[in-house]
Design a protein that fits this description.
alpha/beta, Molybdenum Cofactor Biosythetic Enzyme, Chain A, Molybdopterin biosynthesis moea protein, domain 2, Molybdopterin biosynthesis moeA protein, domain 3, 6-stranded mixed sheet, 7 helices, 26 strands, 19% helix
Length: 401
Amino acid sequence: MISFNEANQIISNEFKELQISQECVDLPNSVNRILSEDVYSDLNLPPFNNSAMDGYAIMYNEGIRSWKITGEISAGNFIEHSLDDYSAVTIMTGGKLPANCDTIIPVEFVLVNGDEVKLKDEVEIKKGQNIRKAGDDLAKGKLALPKDTFLKPHHIAAAASCGKVNLKVYGKLRIGVLATGDELVDIHETPQDDKIRCSNLYSLLSAIRDMNMQAINFGIVKDNKQLIRDRIKWAFESDLDIFLTTGGVSVGKFDYLKEIYEELGVDIKFWQVYVKPGKPALFGTYKNNDKTILVFGLPGNPVSCLVNFILFVKQNILRYFNNEDQNHVQAVLEDDLKKEDKKRHFMRGFLTYNEGAYYVKKVGSQSSGNIAQMAMSNCLIVVEEERFNPAKGELVKCIMI
């Protein structure tokens, strides 16, 4: 049995063997993909000096408080105007500035009488105010989006401003999922006697799709060694990057997965990790010609299965693409936690944000089979090996789920 950190280091090292493709996608379809190129601005942003608000464009002169309105400029309808100390041009937000304009007076700062505009008595202005200069946001040739960015709508806006019709992104990892167990029936069936619905298959498939990776469903197979072996062999021939099984990795009479993996040539890197929940986790690699498939044997208990996926699969995918820190926060405990062994615990919690800080409380039962309580959680509370019984008010690390 190995520690959580040791397990993660082994997995992280093997991720380097993945052969990730790249593809070019049109800009609207690049959202939730991972950028595989640096994006640079092809022009200054903004491309010209413009007004930050609706108001009046002037040449600043400290002793002058009224001006004659000599023209108007709206966004996209620029007309050059020559200003002197006593003239002003009405200008709208985003409007390009006249060549000798150096200050914008907001509309709410003035009184207008016919073609004359005058500062209100209590108002003082400063030279250069309310002007957005060319290149202030991003100068031509500067980096707009770095490689490995997980693209969200605000990133798409930046890329669009740089004239990117298409973006280069990493291909989606192909991740297969197989559930094992005599007790399992599919979700459209009503369980009888000692049967249960197979929630793990669907939680894993949805977790993969939530990361915008490609999920391949290899279904449910009974605890029959030959049937499981045949299904896994089929999966290994299906051009996968990662293969997940759920169930059959513990030490029970019908837990065949470790033995089958070894027989098929999987190089098992570890089996059992000192964590709670999810101790029976298995990880190995399978060589399919010149391609490496990463193999994860996840526990059958629904909470253990999903927690193992988050810890060992999702976190390592995020780490591989340099996005690991996007779902970690520090939070203040709102209640005491009980933890008396030397395992690393991942407790289900509910995280809130108030007045500049995160707060977290545990959610109900911490049983590895209680998926209903998992559904009420939005994070995992991390309690490290050397930490015992964290108390209310202490800081803990949380992983968003």
